[in-house]
Amino acid sequence: MKDLSMHILDIAENSVKAGADRVEVELLYTDRMLQMAIRDNGCGMDEQTVGRITDPYTTSRSSRKVGLGLPFLKMNAEQTGGRIEIDSKPGKGTGVTALFDTGHIDCVPEGDLASTLALLMTGHPEINFVIRMKRNQTDFEISSDEIKEVLEGVPISHPKVGVFVRNMIKEEIKYIKSNEL
After folding, report:
1. What is the extent of the structural domain holding 82?
2. 121 contacts 144 by C-beta, under 8 angstroms
């Protein structure tokens, strides 16, 4: 994966496939570190599967025998001195947390986080995506359900809503990042 936004997209799409109706994406910026967490209430995994999930030859797909999303995430985090943690319980859901040293020369770029997060929210109207971002005392939270409530019947999947959501998230990211330590 070329950037962190693609990792978020990959994990969130796996959450959708796992039957989740709620997916939380959290970005916590501290000093030179970024903690990225994606949690869902999907079908979850047993302990054995969690133990093997970062092996590229472990996948739930039947169309091919490799799954590279989590192995690449682990590699990208570890090459900056970070790590990943995976917590999952059958019937309860899965959480993936990755820690990156954003000042490290080998840290992959963030990519277009605003477009990715907006696409997830507007592309899956049946799922409540909750987006949280925080740096210092500045934090931002928005959910698909909140947006749908304000729209009063306009579908969240409408293209103009997608542009609005993307621009709102983009401004919040810019504001949070300007809030230096």
Report:
1. 4-178
2. yes
